[in-house]
Amino acid sequence: MFRTLRHIFIVAAGAGVLAACATPEQPAVSLPSSAGVYKIGKPYEIAGIWYYPHEQPDYDETGIASWYGPTFYGKHTADGEIFDAEALSAAHRTLPLPVNVRVTNLENGRSLVVRVNDRGPFAKSRIIDLSERAAKLLGFYDKGTARVRVTYVGRADRPNGAPQPDQTSPQVASLLPAVPAGSVNVGALAAIPGTSVAQEPQAPSPQQPPPSAPAPNPDQAPNGQVTEVQVPLVTHLYVQAGAFSSYDNARRLAVRMNTAGGMNISSIDRNGVRLYRVRLGPFDDVASADAALSRVLSAGGSDAAIVVDR
């Protein structure tokens, strides 16, 4: 069942802080109570927007996270499990289900592995919805939103402990946030120096099965262990309309988005390729970024998204 309602708080997001060590606390964890099934999922439409689920072993994005709960207590998630607010779970628009991802709060350095077993959030300004338990452990339950980095870990075990077939090797997030891929005509959007970035999502190919790989590391499962990692002291929010290897293409998009106001072009090198990013910002609070994103979407920037950068 796709979620069509959302639990969103719009708040001012504070600057991140610097942290450096793992915490020993391991809270009790509740696993989903129904087995569910592994699936990529067919393309689907919500509010006039099409989403294309596909295998994304290199998924690595930054953006705004929110949390959801009361409206969905006891209901089925998109992969057939039962939603449990005390489980370490999450909703994502296009990742296969269920998979594990690491979510790092870029405001306080707290990092946690969660199980993605649902679809959402369907607001363009958010990249992931977390359970209440996960939001509390990451330290943003009361605020409602947080600047986060989301990185793919691997396919999730079934609740009874049986592994999913064709496991994908786990990946651990590095210490600095990556910038998500936007609308890129060649290559992927460049990352903050010293970090990696996801490739531009492509529609799934039914003729190409996912590659086989070793079973996941059990330490990369949703076990409730919160670690604290080093994050930038200060981050900013940007509304990114697209990124291009051609400056002319970037300039044309910036001109087309002129009605949104303040659109600028910045360049960055990645793997020897210079990319030109069309952005609005920086913004220091979520409410301002949300308002800017609304202007860009109204101006026709359908691929625009909020990203976190320095």
List the quaternary state of the chains: single chain
Gyration radius, in Å? 18 Å
For the largest sheet, list the strands in their spatial order.
3-7-4-6-5-8
Q: How much β-strand is present in the residues?
A: 25-35%
Question: How would you describe the overall organization of this protein?
Answer:
The chain is mainly β and 310 residues long. Helix content is 10%, strand content 26%. It has three helices and 13 strands. It has helices at 132-138, 247-256, 286-298; strands at 44-46, 49-51, 60-67, 89-91, 99-105, 110-118, 128-130, 145-155, 227-228, 236-244, 264-270, 273-283, 305-309. Strands 3-7-4-6-5-8 form a six-stranded mixed β-barrel. Strands 11-12-10-13 form a four-stranded antiparallel beta sheet. A hairpin with a 2-residue loop joins strand 11 and strand 12. The longest helix is centred in the last third of the chain and has 13 residues, at 286-298. The protein is globular, with a radius of gyration of 18 Å. Residues 4-29 and 166-216 have low confidence and may be disordered.
